[in-house]
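Backbone shape codes
____________________
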Amino acid sequence: MDKATQITGAIVILLFSVIVHEVMHGLVALKFGDRTAQNAGRLTLNPLPHIDLVGSILVPIVLIYFSFLTGGGGVIFGWAKPVPVNPFNFKNIKKGELFVSAAGIVANFSLAILAGIFLKLSISFNFYLIAPLLLSAIQINLALAFFNLIPIPPLDGSKVLASFLPTKLAISYMKLEQYGMLLLILLLISPVNILGLFVSLLTRLFFALIGI
């Protein structure tokens, strides 16, 4: 498989993965009584309502390009437009916040597991043509899952953590969101590629668990 095909495939996989991530937030929110995402037309796999110019197109293209330039060693991730959620519509606010926030992370881990199963099957049947794309699917979804687990507002991990905190402390903690983007940028441009190291470790552990 040539590099152009791999890059195109990786972009499609990333776009699909971030859309599934956001749709799952909306579906679980609907389950807990909030129809905001449904009313906004965001409970769809159609990419058009979800695409964010920077997070869904520019950042992924740059990261994928540099990843292939460096031999595939970089972390590839991106994001879609956040699905609108109103926690005040939840039947149980804390429980709803926890499950809705965790839904996207669980979705990405599930996609990684599914890709891992198909990768194992492709290797078993000596069908290596799609193996690079399946490997990309695993790495991309593990990167998305781990990145969103970071407890820096507004990432999902911060909302999961906040759901376990006393209300006053949770409100104070989530006020850090105004500094969140700056903290994330500092993390991403750090000379020590912390995210890349953890994703690499997570990928190796994942392969060990599925027996590849």
Q: What stands out?
A: Residues 3-210 form one domain.
